[in-house]
Write a structure and sequence with these properties.
The chain has about 190 residues and is of the alpha+beta class. About 35% of the residues lie in helices and about 20% in strands. It contains eight helices and five strands, in the order E-E-H-H-H-H-E-E-E-H-H-H-H. A five-stranded antiparallel beta sheet has the order 2-1-5-4-3. The termini are far apart. About 30% of the residues are buried.
Amino acid sequence: MPAQDLRSGDPLFATDRTLQIVVWNTAAEELTGIPAEEAIGRPCWQVICGHDDRGALTCHADCAGARDALAGWPVRRRALWIKTSSGRRRVALSTVVVPDEPGPLIVHLLDDADPGAQPSPPPGPRPMLSPRQLEVLRLLADGLTAKQVAHRLTLAMPTVRNHIRGILTELGAHSQLEALAAARRWGLL
């Protein structure tokens, strides 16, 4: 079945085995607010930026769901917080593999898990990050390394390290990954 023949009234996107999006239907556009032109050809994990309810990153270049589906294992439906044009949204994601030429398609069906739900922030006072710390945090969330952040912002590496240390302290995190999860729970990203 050619990728363009995948049709569904439900939100759907499909990737090749390298996780590049090859199909992004109209219902997926409506659910996410992300047009197909912005999604097709990009890695799915960069487009939907899926996180679990604790804020931990679940969509990444080494996707366990895609890997298991390609290996022939059944993949259970799971709830994710995904990126949309208006913020984040909780969806249920089902994954199946469809044989295709030149290789299989990994098809993901999306469903609104909790219409109108928003992640609840953790208890306690809201973290107070400086505008520069927020800028560094957003670049780290986009996958840039500290060195790339320094280059992008034309800052010295020790300055970037100081900003990262301040972010970790303010968010009560022990690693950058933990800080990103906390920032997502607080709605800082």
